[in-house]
Amino acid sequence: MSMFLDTAKIQVKAGNGGDGMVAFRREKYVPNGGPWGGDGGRGGNVVFVVDEGLRTLMDFRYNRHFKAQSGEKGMTKGMHGRGAEDLIVRVPQGTTVRDAETGKVLTDLVENGQEFIVARGGRGGRGNIRFATPKNPAPEISENGEPGQERELLLELKVLADVGLVGFPSVGKSTLLSVITAAKPKIGAYHFTTIVPNLGMVRTHSGESFAVADLPGLIEGASQGVGLGTQFLRHIERTRVILHVIDMSASEGRDPYEDYLAINKELESYNLRLMERPQIIVANKMDMPDSAENLKIFKEKLSANYDEFAELPQIFPISSLTKQGLATLLDATAELLDKTPEFLLYDESEMEEEAYYGFDEEAPAFEISRDDDATWVLSGDKLEKLFNMTNFDRDEAVMKFARQLRGMGVDEALRARGAKDGDLVRIGKFEFEFVD
Predict the structure, then answer these.
(1) 97, 156, 185, 422 — which has fewest CB within 10 A?
(2) Which residues are part of a known binding site for Mg(2+)?
(3) DSSP characters for 73-113?
(4) pTM to 2 decimal places
């Protein structure tokens, strides 16, 4: 079984903030000592960190749940609880992180050591020191810690390579990679010998160097899932230059020019922006009979079907077996890389805006619905956060929450919807009676 994994779906949960404490100063010779309960500590974040030593997402195959520690509770003597350590999750270079619910890209992690907070820990709840006022110098109110962010993420690995080798199965991509780099890909006389991307570093005679990825062979219909389908097409997206390898000997009985058109059609169908990348046509297996004649016909068809004002792609006849033409090909590739800029994988519409973890001022503070059992149901991020941070073990805290609901207009809204005295109202699993 292959040990390469390039997609994963995981759950992350940041730590909750620690609860604030209700305590009072009780010391000899200190009458009416007042409140002394400290704040809770911050919950830990879940942080992704790029590790260049990782090559696949295999670590996420069996470990799909990541939960950071919660902050410590507040203590007496006004001492704050300790904040929790962040949970560090290491990912390979080239990992794209999406929100599974919205599909938006959160971040694209490509630099070694790059960090990104994918879930933020909740802040600690306030202790009763924070609620002391001249009118209420000894409050019995504290807050629970804020819940940590929880979300489902889609991870997608797209290998980092400057140059991608594409083409039909058995056109000689793996052999070419093994000759121009120190990589040792599997080579066999059958289709789909390569079932995972292989990477290698090339150094030219002039001292230039670049990374090359040998990608599993494409076939017609790959962009719709035929063969290995889109499973590895994603790895072409990061490349800046495409080496389109073609079996010019036609040993498989296919027409080289038709192969060229078919592969480009699959690239275009998968992602139109792949056609922006400059291509070099690699006419492989030139040591075979009929290759020279086939190359001549290929050039004629290419010229006849190309726009007269468009620049024809460069064609380099080579033989991976005899190493014919390789130096010229590599020099031309390095030269093309020098003048080819990076391609942005995602535009602004695909990226989620900078995450804001407070309340959305434009979002409604609460929503009202009704269950089948005639219970009124209150929901909404702001309301639910206030509810979760209320310590219902303290009467003063309960009264404070009731005042907050009234200030938000919940009472008026329920009354306008037809709520009557004694009706049940539910927030999460908590139920109480509506008092008109």
Answers:
(1) 422
(2) 174, 194
(3) PP-STTPPPPPPPPEEEEE-TTEEEEETTT--EEEEE-STT
(4) 0.82
